[in-house]
Amino acid sequence: MKKFKLLLAGLVMVALFASVSNAAERKGGITMTFDLNSPASAKDVRLWIPYPTSGDHQKIYGVSVSGNFTKKGVYKEKEHGNTALYAEWRGPFKKRVLTYTFKVRRTDFIMRNFPKKEGPMPAGMARYLRATSFGPTSGKVKTLAIQITRGQRTVVGKARAIYNWIVTNMYRDESVKGCGYGKVERLITTRGGKCADISSVFVALARSAGVPSREMFTIRMPAGETGDMTKNQHCWAEFYEPGYGWVPVDPADVRKAMLQKNTRNLNDVKDLVEYFFGGVDDNRIVYGTGRDILLNPRQDGGRLDYFMYPYAEADGKPLSEDLFGFNLGWKISFREL
Q1: Secondary structure of 148-174 in HEC code, one letter for each residue
Q2: Taking the complete model, does pTM exceed 0.70, yes or no?
Q3: Distance (Å, whole) CA 310 – CA 60
Q4: How far apart are CA 225 and CA 207, in angstroms?
Q5: pLDDT digit string (tens) for 117-164?
Q6: Which residues contact 121 (CB under 8 A, 6 or more apart)?
Q7: H or E element: which one contains 31?
């Protein structure tokens, strides 16, 4: 069973996806260390770290935080519900260090028993139909969404049509930094990107077609009993099926598997195409959702495109060189439990 799960995590045995069950589960211990790349003379350095919480498909426990910070806390922003581990250093420090550890038990997430008849859309879904800074729902995005979903009358029918269009027409571009920015208008023309790009295209097209959708920002546990997770961030999408709930879709992992297998033929990954419409595996730790993020405590810099990477500021100015913040001086390690 352990060998099976490790192969699943690495996307190297495509045929095994067909036999994944709802009972799949994985446990891990995660350690995140910071030796913050910040000016020693700075008087106020602040750091926000994505902080996973327990939910339907994951349990977070055994949390420990240490370091030489002057203040720390766990805070949730109200707009999207993203939670951050927040730390600050007041006054000059030669070094600013922090270690954050936790344990996770994660199960897979499968939603395939769609109702034969869709009920009314519940209240509160309007927020999942709105445009974002990089994900418009008008203009050429709207036009494409109408073309893709022509003839579809149900939510699941529209979602499947958009998913099929993406796995057929987009591709994984390894030259993109991090997980990408999700600039949808450009992406529907260039067609190449990474997971946040491809998932953002799904969400924008779905919202344009009247299907409530959202991105889920996560990090993967690696294949192997120990490993480095520093750049294992991953984004998938979900749409809301009335009378059923949120349904995961991951066209980005289909395209990643095609790249790894060096194929352009969807028939070579047909098991994955079916698996990732309504299912995601047990290797993913969910951080949160939402775009155009105002952190809590609020950052002095502008809104973040999304919150899946650490973010830091010194004396009110961003230390992160970009959305991904790999210059900040941090790493994440994993061990199987």
Answers
A1: HCCCCCCHHHHHHHHHHHHHHHCEECC
A2: yes
A3: 19
A4: 39
A5: 998 999 999 999 999 999 999 999 999 999 999 999 999 999 999 999
A6: 155, 212, 240, 242
A7: strand 25-35
